[in-house]
Design goal:
Length: 436
């Protein structure tokens, strides 16, 4: 439970706050930033939760704002931190951008939201789609007759009476690959971040059951775990999933929200073979001209195709007069990024491609300076109908009391993560260089 919830600027000044209990002094909000500065001055790390004079401060930072909850009691800190993150999501849903100006322009709406999402310090309805049914984004005073029925039910994320002519459910398994390859060509860091995203256009109050090739589930039912079973880590679910049932028999059972949402996310810290391998050879001509040969290899099955492949190779910041020879795709020079970008619309599995680039150098460089890439090669891509982890949807069942038939659609996507980079480079001049 929280006594006060406040949003502060970076100077520690309260922009807006809501008091739910009268057991903490109003001055505690003003003490928040000096307390943080005092902790930093002592050389200690500021944690999301700390106490002072019997008062608990729990906070998160979003952009240039602090979201702070204050309590005198022994509150559930993890729950309050989760609540503050949900508050951020709700405000972004309403105002698109969460910043000091948007808060000052929408005091009325924010106070209405703070009254609805928390009662006497206890979190209540935190589903943005349900809140938007009766708290509208209007600058004037709102005319609220009564809350929707979903607020008074156990299923607070879905309204009653939803009807569709065609009942469909779309499920996307999206995996993002992060990896780092060192100069020796070895993968030094890799991980898979996965998410199961859904779009549900279903009538009534349906219950869905999702089955995955989960290793723990196979073992719990006495089935021999095959090579195709995977061991999910750091699994996080949407609030609609019945966690008790998942813990008992690993069944993912839920009543879905209407429309688009993320059902679950997971992580796999396993050794990953680069799906798209890129290396570059560099050659210098008297230190005033530099040539690159970039080779890309698709290291996935031939029946698969990577879409929107984008390879970024760094060059010296003062490079000029670019010239390119490329058999497939397009290349353009991005001087603001000090790099050239090779774009390939479709890259088939098992293919090798080669492109050449040439740049002039206004100032003469040494051989040692030219022989190294200023920054690692980065790769972006989308690979449809493929998952690196091997996760599979074994079944997706829709059960609704009216007995209608729903059409489930399942799609697999693998793409680059926030950090897919290769520091590999062929030995200087090891690839053939031909005149441009």
């Amino acid at each position: 439970m929280a006594s006060v919830v406040a949003i502060l600027d970076l100077k520690g000044k309260s922009i807006i706050q809501r008091t739910y209990r009268d057991d903490v002094p109003a001055s505690c909000i003003e003490l928040f930033l000096p307390l943080i500065q005092g902790i930093e001055d002592e050389g200690q790390q500021v944690t999301p939760c700390f106490s002072n004079m019997g008062i608990n401060y729990i906070h998160i930072r979003y952009s240039n704002l602090y979201l702070l909850a204050v309590s005198r009691r022994n509150s559930n800190a993890a729950e309050i931190i989760l609540f503050l993150h949900r508050l951020c999501q709700i405000l972004v849903e309403y105002f698109k951008e969460l910043e000091e100006e948007s808060i000052r322009d929408n005091f009325v709406v924010i106070y209405e939201l703070l009254d609805e999402i928390m009662d006497f310090g206890y979190p209540q309805t935190t589903e943005a789609k349900i809140l938007q049914e009766y708290i509208l984004q209007e600058p004037h005073k709102l005319d609220i007759v009564r809350p929707p029925q979903a607020v008074t039910q156990v299923v607070s994320w879905r309204s009653e009476g939803i009807r569709y002519r065609k009942n469909e459910v779309f499920l996307d398994v999206i995996e993002s690959v992060n990896l780092l390859v060192n100069a020796s060509g070895n993968v030094v860091r890799s991980e898979i971040l996965g998410a199961v995203k859904m779009k549900c256009y279903l009538s009534g109050m349906p219950e869905l059951r999702l089955g995955l090739n989960d290793k723990v589930m196979f073992e719990s039912i006495g089935r021999t775990s095959s090579d195709k079973a995977i061991d999910l880590e750091d699994v996080k679910f949407h609030q609609c999933v019945r966690l008790s049932r998942f813990e008992n028999d690993r069944t993912i059972s839920f009543i879905p929200p209407d429309g688009e949402f993320e059902l679950m996310s997971y992580r796999l810290a396993q050794a990953v073979k680069p799906l798209i391998w890129v290396e570059a050879a560099i050659d210098s001509h008297n230190g005033n001209r530099i040539e690159y040969v970039v080779k890309v290899r698709a290291q996935f099955k031939r029946r698969s195709t990577a879409n929107s492949v984008e390879i970024t190779v760094s060059v010296p910041e003062d490079a000029d007069t670019p010239k390119f020879r490329v058999p497939t795709g397009k290349v353009h020079y991005a001087p603001d990024k000090a790099a050239f970008i090779w774009t390939i619309n479709k890259l088939g599995g098992g293919r090798d491609l080669l492109m050449r680039a040439q740049f002039g150098l206004p100032s003469v460089r040494s051989e040692q300076d030219i022989g190294n890439l200023p920054a690692p090669i980065t790769v972006k891509f989308d690979l449809l109908y493929f998952t690196l982890s091997g996760i599979q949807v074994r079944y997706l069942k829709v059960v609704e009391k009216s007995g209608y038939q729903a059409l489930p659609w399942v799609r697999y996507i693998t793409q680059n993560g926030d950090d897919y980079s290769l520091r590999t480079a062929l030995e200087k001049g090891s690839a053939p260089i031909v005149p441009m």
